[in-house]
Specification:
It is built from 20 helices and no strands. The protein has 390 residues and is mostly helical.
């Protein structure tokens, strides 16, 4: 009897197990169907830019997706959630979702791509570059090495930028001519001016790159203090059709540094007319006019910069919040004194002193004005102040 009972119990148990297995299989099929349905509805909602609805379906999909048995799908759900977070400006939440996705599926390349976008938008170029580098490793999309180079460049890491760009070239992303020119740019941007000049020299007469190569050569020579050479390079760029913003301004600086006031004035005038460095170009134009002895013209330029017109007795603070380089007052004072406009020169030097600009020189120059006006007492006081000024 005991044996028969045991046999009956065993049979019942097996039957229950069989029924249970069928139930689990049916449930598994139902779960898979629900997961597929929710996933599809979420994607449709994302495509329709209905992100609230997409979130609702994604949340339901998580219920039917087991991260242990279906890690790829689970990670993809987290990725979709992160994408919506990015679209809605929730970058921190998105990064948490991406971290979770990569914990489940470390080879989810797109997670690194989304993270790259987030870090780029936040100007965190170091982390953006690290994520993009990982994405390229996982996806094999070598054309993105060019973007990786740009991220390193934005982060100021020119050596890393060059290395990434070399990989871009090696993968067939650029021809040798373009690659050589870009190498020159990276050397220039990293302060290796002599090496950059050598790289650009190969393109001096090139139809495509010639104007750019000569302009960049001029910038490098300018940074090396080789102003005469820089003038020739900028002129060569202009003759090759270069219309680079900064060509006239930079060449004007070179003329100024070599005391070629007339040509400097011409270039700063053209810069004012065609380039965005208007205030700086006007200031330097004023310096050229002053150095050339054209004091009245210089005063007019400096007065335009200050914006006080015939009300030059007003302090800078009263000029409707206009920010003025105190050097403009100083040099206008020099020009006014040279023209014999002593009252105007006195006002300019006094403004410099009130602003604490070049106190020793400003006191000394005002002392000369007082001497010309016959006020020896104030002259002596300012000379004393010039000696004690810090």
């Amino acid at each position: 009897m005991k044996t028969k009972i045991c046999a009956v119990i065993l049979t019942v148990t097996l039957m229950l197990l069989a029924v249970s297995g069928l139930a689990e299989g049916a449930a598994s099929a139902t779960n898979a169907q629900m997961l597929d349905t929710m996933y599809t509805l979420a994607l449709n909602a994302i495509n329709q830019e209905d992100y609230a609805t997409a979130r609702k379906y994604l949340n339901i999909a998580f219920v039917y997706c087991d991260r242990e048995t279906n890690p790829v799908m689970y990670a993809d759900l987290l990725l979709k959630q992160a994408c919506i977070d990015v679209i809605e400006g929730e970058n921190n939440t998105a990064l948490l979702a991406l971290d979770a996705a990569l914990t489940v599926d470390p080879n989810l390349a797109d997670a690194y791509l989304v993270a790259t976008q987030i870090y780029t938008n936040e100007a965190d170029f170091a982390d953006a570059a690290a994520c993009l580098d990982k994405y390229i490793e996982l996806s094999g999309e070598t054309e993105l090495y060019e973007t990786l180079a740009q991220l390193h460049e934005a982060n100021g890491n020119m050596d890393a930028a060059q290395a990434a760009y070399d990989k871009f070239v090696a993968a067939g992303g650029a021809d040798s001519k373009e690659a050589g020119f870009q190498a020159g740019l990276y050397r220039m941007e990293s302060g290796k001016y002599a090496e950059a000049i050598e790289a650009f020299s190969a393109y001096a007469n090139d139809e495509t790159y010639g104007a750019g190569a000569m302009y960049n050569t001029g910038v490098c020579q300018m940074n090396l203090g080789e102003y005469d050479k820089a003038v020739k390079a900028f002129t060569a760029s202009e003759e090759l059709g270069g219309t680079f913003s900064g060509l006239y301004y930079n060449r004007g600086i070179c003329y100024l540094m070599t005391e070629d006031w007339a040509n400097g004035a011409k270039d700063f005038t053209r810069s004012i007319e065609t380039e965005p460095y208007v205030e700086d170009a006007k200031y330097n134009l004023g310096i050229c006019r002053m150095q050339a002895g054209e004091y009245a013209e210089a005063v007019a330029i400096f007065t335009e910069l200050i914006g006080d017109g015939d009300k030059s007795s007003q302090p800078a603070e009263s000029q409707e919040g206009k920010t003025v380089n105190d050097a403009v007052y100083y040099f206008r004072g020099v020009c006014n004194a040279a023209l014999g406009n002593m009252e105007a020169a006195l006002r300019d030097y006094t403004t410099c002193i009130e602003h604490g600009y070049e106190l020793s020189q400003s006191y000394y120059q005002r002392a000369q004005v007082y001497a010309a006006m016959g006020d020896s007492e104030k002259q002596a006081s300012d000379l004393e102040s010039s000696l004690n000024a810090k």
